[in-house]
Structure formats: C-alpha cells, structure tokens
Write a structure and sequence with these properties.
Helices cover 29% and strands 24% of the residues. With 463 residues, it is α/β, with parallel strands linked by helices. The chain has 2 domains: 153 residues, Lyase, Ornithine Decarboxylase, Chain A, domain 1; 256 residues, TIM Barrel (Alpha-Beta Barrel), CATH 3.20.20.10. It is globular. The two termini are 44 Å apart. Bound molecules: ligand LLP. Ligand LLP binds next to helix 10 and helix 11. Pathway: Amino-acid biosynthesis; L-lysine biosynthesis via DAP pathway; L-lysine from DL-2,6-diaminopimelate: step 1/1.
C-alpha cells in the first residue's frame, strides 16, 4: 500500500486495528519498567519522579515541553554495553541518536567510543574532550572539508562509503602527509525491519559498497593499494530498531566471507569487523528488546564460529548502538492544553509540543506510550490521541493510547523512550522552539541543552 495515500497527514477516522496490542491497561497509573528510564517512579502523592525529582518541580523550573534525561540510567546502559563486550571489542555510541557535550563526557568516562557522521557531530565530540582516536567518522557524502578536519584531528577511523570516497580520503590524507585508518562499509544484502529481516543479493539504498558482483572486493583492492590509507576492517550496518538477531547472523556470515576472500587474494587478514548499530528498544509494553550481554554473546559467537569455519583469526569486533543506549533514558514532559472528545472515535489531547520535538510518529508510524505524570487518577480509560500544536493534521505524538477520562488542561503527561532520534531530529516547524534537555541525577537537575528562544530564531533570520 502506498504511504502517499495520506500525503499530509493521518489516516482519518481509523479505529484501533484488530489485534492491536492496545487494550485499556488494568491500572492506568502503573509504569511499565520496560519503557521508562531506570529511576522513574511515582512518589507518595502519585507524581512521576525521576532521579528523585518530581515532574511538577521540573516543569516549574524548566518549563514544558522538555526532554528529561535520566543520567544514572544513561551511564548504566553505556556501562552495560561496555561490560558486555569486554576488552576484546569496542562500543561506539552512535551520536546521531542524541549528542551533546555532557553526553560526550559521560561516554568518555564510561569507556565508550563515539561514531559521528557530520562536521557538527565531530566538533561537538572534540570540543567535549573525546580523544580523536576513539572517534569513527561516518557518512555517505562527507565533504572534502569534513574529511580534512577528521584527518587533521586524528580520528581513529573513517568509514569509507563509496569508490569516490576511497580515492578522496586517500588523496587528502596523503596531501597532509598522513596515513588514515579506514574501514570499508559494505552492504551485505540484509535489510532489517523491526521484527524481521530480508536477505537478498542486493540492497537498493544509498549507503556502502555492495558485496554483490565483486564490488566490495574491488574496493578492498583499491584501498590496499593507496598509500594514504591503512585498511583496518570491514563495516556493516543492517538497519535500526531490530529485535531479530538472525539478520546480524547473515551479515556476519557475508562479511567474514569477504575477509576470507581478502586473505586468499591478498594474504592479508584484516583485524577488525564492525557490525554497526540497530538494536531495538521498547517503545510500548509490546516490545521485547534483548539485553546488551545477550547481544554481545550472540554477536561474538556468530563471528567466532564463522571465522573458525573460514580458518581466520577472529577479528576485533565493534558495534555502534545509539538508540539502545540513549532511547530509554529520556521521556518528554508536556503540558496538556486543548482536549477534544470526538464521539464514538477518540479524544484528541493537545500538548504544547508535537512533531517538532518528535517527528518519529509522523515519519515512521512509530508507536509510543504515554502516562499522566502530575498525578494519579481513579477515572476510567479514555481512548486518546496525543497531538501537538502544529498546523498539520499529521502532527501526532502518540497515535493510540489510554489516558484517564478526567484528564484536564494543565495536567502534565509524559511520553517515555524519547531519548533517541527526537531531540536530534527536532525542527523549528511553525517557528516552535526546540525544547531543552534536562539531565537528572541523584536529586539534581541541570539543563544540558537549553531551550531555544525567539531571539535564537531572529538571530538566524538576518532580515
Ligand atoms: N551505525 C550506523 C552506521 C548507522 O547508520 C546508525 C543509524 C547507527 C549506527 C545507530 O543505529 P541505532 O543503534 O541507533 O539504531 N532516525 C531513525 C533511525 C535512523 C538510524 C540511522 N542510522 C529513527 O528515528 O528510528
């Protein structure tokens, strides 16, 4: 079915699809630990708290909407990834999920490396003290300027994404008198969706160099010949919000196959393999993500087994989780404004943000959950759609959810699992100001990215 059937907005008057996970929960006030950050709970008055601070206080001090990030949870998840993979592997946090200087410092302290994919992300990483050798530089269309900055800074690796880039990076490195460590990103013909994957010979997308038709082998041939490059490994990233490990299995099998061909042709055993990111998180109670230690065990076993079969030394593995580190650690706090019951359908609950702070629902049909945060309620369930304040009917934050029927303007509601790809994809649509990110830890809250102001808007608009 074509997605363009609803070019500017929602499916109108749709009811809950049959078999949908959503049924009114037994207890509307309950918080499913799966979707909420680690320290989130309700205090004795029923108010949602995080890091020991209640959301009414957060709203008063920082305003709404706001992304509230549980620093304890962020650090715990980062550490869990690091520990799970141990010293024989590297974890590169994918900065595209959410990047700020505070986050860079936490990552640095917790021993994670960082994947950046633009000059802006590189600058943020370097300015917060991430050692350049722990940075990987990604992107399918890096500019000459970005490449030069990355090489001059001394990034640990540049992930080459095309034949053109192999030549370009080699040339720039050589002209700077350097030899740049690089990986080649290959497309292995594995297309992963949330709950499934498709293995094909080809992948029809812009990233990487296909394994198919010997293209990746040719890329390796060229990279090995160029003086400006030190080829250290092969990179594969198969998708995002993945639950099924079998996609990684096929990818690892195909990448190890390439490593074997390289050994046979060139007598070189490349020392590294990067399996990318993409591990899924729970947005609703229906999702069942794997723990980092399970993922580490599965990936390590797959690569080790494939290498034994191919009689190769097992390369050093790296992974690039973004969403799985930061996604569950934050929620968005909104104030309820207009409430509009549509008889026989649902109630539209408008909040003071919307598609400018969370585009994922409109863009990917993503599902989210929501809870009344400023109090508990004994009222019955009300089928709701949480919408924003934008001039567009597709401006939906939570498509289908139950909220208490006594919900009123001025109540605070919270949407969990908004740590990844919400602030980082936020926009100024309708000149709505992007919300702050407030980090909470051990009873203290501080702004790590401040709220945009109207002065910020006018500063860019030079008139
Ligand atoms: N490594 C590479 C090379 C990537 O392209 C990505 C994500 C990651 C790692 C991190 O993937 P993660 O672990 O966060 O799934 N905006 C979309 C997601 C786009 C992901 C792009 N690449 C969303 O909101 O779902």
């Amino acid at each position: 079915m074509s997605r363009s059937a609803h070019p500017a907005g929602p499916r109108h008057a749709d009811v809950l699809p049959e078999g949908h996970y959503l049924a009114p929960p037994a207890d509307l006030n309950a918080l499913d630990a799966k979707v909420w950050a680690q320290t989130v709970t309700r205090n004795a008055d029923g108010v949602l708290t995080v890091g020991g601070i209640d959301v009414k206080r957060l709203a008063e001090e920082f305003g709404t909407p706001a992304y509230i990030l549980d620093e304890t949870d962020f650090r715990a998840r980062a550490r869990a990834w690091r520990t799970a993979f141990g010293n024989d592997a590297d974890v590169f946090y994918a900065g595209k999920a959410f990047l700020s200087r505070a986050v860079v410092r936490w990552l640095n302290e917790e021993g994670l490396n960082l994947d950046v994919c633009s000059g802006g992300e590189l600058t943020t990483a370097l300015s917060a003290g991430m050692p350049a050798e722990r940075i990987a530089f990604h992107g399918n269309n890096k500019s000459a300027d970005e490449i030069e900055r990355a090489i001059r800074a001394g990034v640990g690796r540049i992930v080459l994404d095309s034949f053109l880039e192999i030549a370009r990076v080699a040339h720039i490195a050589q002209s700077l008198g350097k030899r740049q460590r690089v990986q080649i990103r290959v497309t292995v013909g594995v297309e992963a969706h949330t709950h499934e994957f498709i293995a094909t010979a080809h992948e029809d997308q812009k990233f990487g160099i296909p394994l198919a038709d010997g293209q990746a082998a040719e890329a390796v041939r060229r990279a090995l010949q160029l003086e400006g490059l030190e080829l250290i490994g092969i990179h594969s990233h198969i998708g995002s919000q993945i639950f099924d490990m079998s996609g990684f299995e096929v990818a690892a099998h195909r990448v190890v196959g390439l490593l074997k061909d390289i050994r046979d042709e060139h007598g070189v055993e490349l020392p590294e393999i990067d399996l990318g990111g993409g591990l899924g998180i729970a947005y609703t109670s229906d999702d069942d993500p794997r723990e980092p230690h399970e993922i580490a065990k599965a990936l390590t076993e797959i690569v080790t087994r494939e290498c034994e079969t191919a009689k190769l030394r097992t390369p050093r593995i790296s992974v690039e989780p973004g969403r799985a580190v930061v996604g569950p650690t934050a929620f968005t706090l909104y104030e309820v404004g207009t409430i509009k019951p549509l008889d026989g359908l649902r109630t539209y609950v408008s909040v003071d943000g919307g598609m400018s702070d969370n585009i994922r629902t409109a863009l990917y049909d993503a599902e989210y959950s929501v809870a009344l945060a400023s109090r508990t309620s004994d009222a019955g369930p009300m089928l709701s759609r949480v919408v924003g304040k934008h001039c567009e009917s597709g401006d939906i934050v939570v498509r289908d959810a139950f909220l208490p029927a006594d919900l009123a303007p001025g109540d605070l509601i919270a949407v969990p699992a908004t740590g990844a790809y919400c602030r980082s994809m936020a926009s100024n649509y309708n000149h709505v100001l992007r919300p702050p990110v407030v980090a909470v830890k051990d009873g203290e809250a501080r702004v790590i990215v401040r709220r945009e102001t109207e002065e910020d808007l006018l500063r860019l608009d030079v008139g």
